[in-house]
Design brief:
The protein has about 750 residues and is α/β, with parallel strands linked by helices. The chain contains 31 helices and 17 strands. About 50% of the residues lie in helices and about 10% in strands. It has a 7-stranded parallel β-sheet. Helix 11 packs across helix 12. The structure holds a DNA duplex (15 and 10 nucleotides).
Amino acid sequence: MSITDGQSHFDAVFLQLIKQLNISQKEAVSTLDGPTLVLAGPGTGKTQLIAAKVGKILMDSDTLPKNILCLTFTDAGVNALRNRLVQYIGPEGHKVQVLTFHAFCNQIIQQNRYHFGQNNLEPISDLERIDIIRMILDELPWDNPLKKGYANAHQFEREWQSLIQWMKKENYKVADLIEKIDEYCNQMPSLPEFKYKRKQGTFNVGDLKEGLYQDFLQKYARLREAVRLFDVYEQEKNLRHRYDYEDMILWVLKAFQDKPYFLSLYQEQFLYVLLDEFQDTNGAQFALVQTLLNYWDTPNLFIVGDEDQSIYEFQGARIKHLQDVKDKYGDDLHLVQLKENYRSTQGILNTAFAFIQRNTLTSSLKNQGNVSPQPLIAASALRQIDSTPIVVEYGSIFQEEADLVHSLKNLFKKGVNPGQVAIIFRNNRQGDQLVRLFEKNSIPYHTSRPINILHTPIVFKIRRIIQYLIQEWKETDRGESEFLPLLYHAHWEISMSDIGKLNKIKVTSDLSWHQIMTDETIWGSIGIENSQPLKRAYRFFQDALKQGLNKALPAFLEYIINKSGLLKATLKQKDSILQVQILNTLVNFCEKSVEREPNISVIDWMLMMDRMQDNHLAISLEMPQVSNESVHLLTAHRAKGLEFEYVFMYDCVQSEWEGKSNNTGVFSFPPTLKMEPETDELEASRRLFYVAMTRASQFLQIGFGKENTVGKPRMPTLFISELLEDKLVHFEQRIYPGFFCPHRI
DNA sequence: GACAATGATATTTTT
DNA sequence: TATCATTGTC
């Protein structure tokens, strides 16, 4: 046993955990060696299982924690697993390598900088990437296809950026792509879709549609140019000692493949590899794992995944990787299916199971050995109660909203904790609507949509203050025009009438603000009512002008926040928790900026934020504690991995769930170059719907309104029809004639 | 009824 | 920028 004697407490905890595992979980945990694939449906205790597996490896072999590698996709997944590990096996859990794919590769790059050709590499930031892209675009002549005809030199920066990322993800080479593009351009004039099939005006049958043809030629000329410039981007990025997220995976993969010695270092270290959420692996990540394990015919590989919950296909994830694993290891693969669910009632599980059975592309693994398609079994006796999900049809989306508010208030009255309620929808903008609804009805809510703090009033205020100081540093009185708006900030507590009086003096005299703010005889002559706040404000600016040049940037920022009185005023506000969190995020961002660029000046830092704002880049609010007292508003994607007692699926209409893919901000590709289409969009959507349904532990309502906000009819999503057709749900109509939208007025 | 030209409208997410 | 819906022609 490798766990030391001082850990007897954790041994007991761990043994207890092992005892509690059900039969299939025990089966998955107990086979130590060789590849194991665990099919883990929703709520089957996946994180617990992986933690137990790690504990078992440590207990039954002489493997050290650092020889175990656990890979997932998100930081959230890493945190969840890490916490569980420490809980069960104690401090030793910290030594297990629990990482995201990107963090794993980044660590390897950082540990072996010489291997990767440079010794001062840093991951590129969004802003740096934009800078490089803009610089290259700026240097192009105006008749370049990417600029010709556009006043904005950066017209195609987003498209180009996503093209670069796509090329890296799919590992495409510049020359191959250009060849494919040229091939199609040559074909175009002879293709039927570019010819008139009928006499039209002066054109005869068979004539070339000149306008259409020219449009496409121009489009592909742009694409060709963007592809060609890929190497220029790479060059410039390398010159600056930076690398992309995509590079992290690709570079390590390439190093593993090209340098056997390098690979063997890691093959010797990692004796056990555990992969979580395997259905989300993209091609590069899968190749990386395969390369890492290629030393063994039957590696100690433990994979956990559920093909029905694969919802990141649009990011390159492929379900077929699960089948690939089966094909690769054949009979050596230990296939286990978890059959018990610890989350939901049997009613919900039955409905969800029958629903996902409509997906046919994904069932290849589910009929092998002791694995068979069947509903998950509710593990707890409490979960046996009937709780068939309900589909509700409303007269309009307004009625659905009103009824939602009504239902929630009733639940709260019954004593239900708002934190146990989730509203799940497809697209973020549906959530925005709900935010307004909940605000009006004073329902506590929590939205997971990231907030860009650059757009918050408090950050805006701080930037204005610093902006003024910068002007004054450059030259006294240079900030004149920016001074007055600063006085209006509420935290100084200067009265409106006093500001008005000061401003009147300012515009009717030649006095500078410095003169006005220091001369109390002027204040007396115009009848200032309360001079204290004025003195405080002006003293702050004077002190800040002196202090700013003596302090390091983060300290200066904190100085501004504290001494201006902004923090004190913020603490008094109703939403002070949020506001303070915004301030924290800003300070953290500032510290990070200094880390990246130790010599950054206040001016540079301010310009950086200006540029971020111009480029729609965000400083995302960091929210550490998720309130347990408020209703969760979530997209189906974000709901993954979470569970709630009450789930309302809101606004489930066709246009939201089965909307066609819209590629804005992406270059269009010729048909000779289509991305691998081996995926079925409808099945992908159905999986997403399934993920949303299986978040519910005891109550699930699926709603839709027959009319939209302006009275146009809309269809429920196909998935609702399927549920009704299979008689898997209760159905109810709640149509209130003459009901418009009182709650919106 | 099929084709052609014109006009409104607009994802999901991580590192 | 691309697609769907609508209106306009043959």
